[in-house]
Amino acid sequence: MSTSSQPVSRRSFGKLAAVAAAAVAGGSALSSCATRSGTASPGAPLRVMAINHVWSHAISGRVAELEERIGRRVSITMLTADQLASSYNVKLNASGTDVDVMMVRALQEQLLFAHNGWLTDLTDRARGDTAYDWADFQDAPRERSVTDGRVLSIPVVTERPALYYRKDLVEEFGGPPGTLEDLLEMSLELADRRRGFFGYVGRGQRSGAVSQWSSFLYSFGGDFTVDGRSAIATPQAIAAYELYGGLLERTGPPGATNMSLEQAMPIFAQGKAAFYVDADAIYTNFLDPKISTVQDTVGFAPFPAGPAGSRPHNIPSWSLAVNEFSLLRDDAWEFIRWASSPEMVASLQAEGIPGARSSAWSDRATLTSFPADLAEAMRINAENGLGHDRPEVLQVGRARDIVGRPLVAGILGKSVPGIARDANAEFDDFLVRDNRHREPR
């Protein structure tokens, strides 16, 4: 196998940052209409391109059993997210046959890749195989694997937000906040910003914060769009903007509008904040004594409820797809079928890699590697979760930038409604153009 030399740990979950929009958007104007020609030689390896991630390393250690089954060597190349995006952009625009299985993000690249004709339709394979049991995949990740009625990817890693909190600080409140209003009130009471202690820390960077804000939006009863139109100036969206902005503006650290995951996470890990909402996959950062001072006091809770209840996202953070130009599509499907089988998902989840199959989540034995309160929070969030954490459009980066403008306004203490209305008009115009780009050629 060919793998990158970059180290990986469970902290790699925290590195699932957005691929640079420009890298993939460059292909949005190009529709790959070329067809496959020729056949692969018997000695050609099955080529898998993957993110340098704990899931990829776990699979690479098991691949010998698949090689024996298909009678072909499997070559796995692991890259950073930016490298992966650039490679896909080059290879797929050229109708390249030198990649067979692709690790992709259904919410970031799938619409664009489908529009360009780069993904093999897996519908018959996934739905027609009784033993594979397509219905076993959780509703939200499964639905996000389908574009225009076609199954174009298979989810293998899922992610939800978790509420990280300081157990030693919430005892007087009777436990962690159960609602978003409680979260704000407790954050205000615990914050001591003059002494460098914050009630709440979270992402505030304009584009990067959108994915975490989405769970606040849904829990207020809103969404990014409704019936194809922008919905970011509805009363529900404005209330979500104001609460999220208020958390950081009134109880958070200075410079919050510049904070991505990499800046926000260490503040909580070093014991400088009472609450933090971010991906459940980064939890090991808070249990590692080399980087954390809260390993003995950190607690994990489900996403707090808003007026519409607790409505976090539950997304397929990484999925597997087959290159439409591959000469080994049958073997590529066998790789996916094996890597996302009920048995494999259960095995990997038992090692701390959350999968997308309901059967694995219903088996408590698969959750024993997680702290007990985190496992329960993950299970609850998965049941309540929605399958997207960003606008579902071709040009994801641009959409996030527009949606993030009122978010930044709230963090800066500005009046949100007027800015939200302006952003709503801009987003509406964007959606018209984005939908026009989706029309078949």
UniProtKB/TrEMBL annotation:
This is Multiple sugar transport system substrate-binding protein. It comes from the Bacteria. Transmembrane segments: none annotated. SUPFAM superfamilies: Periplasmic binding protein-like II. Keywords: Sugar transport, Transport. InterPro entries: Bact_solute-bd_prot1, SBP, TAT_signal. It holds the Pfam family SBP_bac_1. The lineage of its organism: Bacteria, Bacillati, Actinomycetota, Actinomycetes, Kitasatosporales.
